[in-house]
Each structure stands twice: as C-alpha cells, then as structure tokens.
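We include the entry.

. . .
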Amino acid sequence: MDEKLLMTPGPTMLPTRVLEIMRRQIIHHRTFNYERCFDELCENLKLVFQTSQTVMTVACSGTGMMEAAVVNLFSPGDKVLAVTIGAFGDRFAEIARAFGLDVQLYAVEWGKPADPGKIKEILDTDAANEIKGVLITHNETSTGVTNDIKAIAGLTKDTGRLLVIDAISSLGALELKMDEWGADAVVTCSQKGLMNAPGLGFAALSAKAWAAYAESKGPKFYWDFMKYKNGIAKISENPPFTPAITLVLAQNESVKMLLEEGLDNVYARHRKFALATQAGAASLGLRLLPAQEHSSYVITAVLPPEGVDVTGIINDMNVSYDVMVVGGQKGLKGKLLRIGHCGYFNRFDLLRTFSALELSLAGAGYKFESGVSLGTVQKALA
C-alpha cells in the first residue's frame, strides 16, 4: 500500500524535517537542550501569532484550548455572545454552557459567514454591557467558510469586551494579526497549519484578556494559563507539567519552516491552492457549499453530484487510491465532500487528489470529460 495522502482538515501531512525530529530518542524536559528548544519555539510562535504577548504551549487537543480559554477568561454566570457558523462554533458555545456561562447564540446558516453588521447590532443593543466576550471560529472546517475576523475584531478592540478566537484551522495558514487587529485571545493546535502531529495546543492573551484572567472565578488547575506563563518567564517551574517532549521539538522545526518560507508566502500558497481546488471542482460540474468569496483557503467544501453517493466516493478514494478526504458533519453528513489543502502539501498532492476523485466519480457512473479537472488545476497553479 502506498503512503496515505491526507487531504483532510487535520491531521495534515508532516514534513520530512519534522518526521526526522520525531524519530529521535526522547530527551528529558528538565535539561538545557529541551529548554533551549522550547525557548526558541516560544519566541518564534509570537511571530506566527503576530503578537508581543507570551504564547503558551499545553499538551492537549484544540478543543482543550477552547475550554482553557473559557475557564481562564470568564466566571460562571458571565454572559458571552457565541457566534457559530458550523460544528466548531457550536462546540465553543457548548463548552461555555458546560462551565456555567450565560450564552447568547448568533447562529448563521451553515455555508455562510457571520455578518459583522449583525454582530455590531447585537453588541450595540447590549446597553448595560452584560456581554463580557465574543466567542468565534476564524475558519470553520465543517462548512469550508472563513469569517472576517479583522472586521469583527474592530467591534471589540476599543471596548471592555473580549474577542476570543478559535484559530485552530487558520493559524499558520490564513492571515491573522493578533495585536494589530485587536484580538484578545487566540487559541490553536499543532496538527493543521502548524504542520505537526496532534497533541499540542497554543494560546496567547492580550493585556485586556490577562486583566480578565485576574477577575475570573472559573475553576482551573491544569488549564491555568498563568502557570504556563510564569514558567516561560522563569518565575516558576517550566514547564509546570510534563510536556509532550517530542511534539515540542518537532513543532519548533515546523515553525522554523513556516518562518523560512515567510508568512505572507505561506498565506499566498494556501490561497493559490484553494482557488485551484475550487476551479478543479467547478470543471467537474461540482458546486461549492459556500459562495466562492467566503470559501476557505484551508478546506474546500463541495456538494456531490445529484444521485452520487458521496460516502462511497470518499471511501473509494481512500481504499482504492490512498487519498483521504472527508465528508460532512452533523446535518451535512452524507451531503458533502471536503478537500483539505492545509499545512504541508504541494501541487502533486493536489493533482493526485483530483486524479483519485475523477476515478472514483467515474466508477460511480458520473459522466464528465476524463482529465478535465487535472488540466484545470495545472493551469490554475501555473
């Protein structure tokens, strides 16, 4: 069997340089070699987050960092506005409810982005300033839609409200200027745009968010951000708990790769491949779930042809051609095909993906001109 090509929203393929780090024998975390690597990672992550604030590293999933943001910044009974455009926006709201927050929901039809004007309207009508923060997903992989975070950040930047961003699938792939835009908390994880294996979460807080932390009465121990911040500053033990050592060493290497490529070049690469994917899908007569102007540069959400079993297509691509794409979630299960183009990938990965897609569609009886999407993708990438 050939190596499986993961064209998924995460985990994503790993660079050779990262794999080389991961195959090495483990080292101890209370050593100079580990601390030197971790210190370098902390400084380089600031460049990726585009912040002067401390970036904390925690052994957990992205969902863990979403939960950590809630417990560090709010208290039971606090009111928050949860903006959801899909499954992961829903998850942020569910986490907030689980910790006793009063959640006001702004839910958008799946396949569409949040309207900054609507968010402004909601916040403007909150004359008593009861809404302490806004929880929002930057890039919603369940629907292939990206929110206009820059515009939304402008609504909270000079106010007492916090903007808490799930950047799990966007950081390292899409432009996100934490300090310049005025984001207060940005959380992400290792296995998507940051080109590492799953298991690490990252978070950065603004000065306003750290002030909210000081007032927070949410229960926290392992998730306590101050323990991680103090450790990085050498005020207390660093790290406060046993870290995922190999993942940290590998993450340092992958972040170096991003910075060597240049963040603007990384963002441009994701945009170019996304547009090529959209063009390839269109050449096969396939429609996107979102409008093209809102379609993600990290993942492309495609509606299957009429009468074609999309689950069968996905399974055939995986089993017969070793190319893994994913289907829809929740209400879109069995109704969507999602092609990831995030993190570490190249033009031949995309061509292989469309070759497998064409073969599987043809096997399902769908009629189209053989090779049309391959030619379209090649022209789009030329």
Observations:
- DSSP finds 14 helices and 15 strands in the chain.
- The first helix runs from residue 16 to 22.
- Residues 5-10+262-381 form a domain with the Aspartate Aminotransferase, domain 1 fold (CATH 3.90.1150.10).
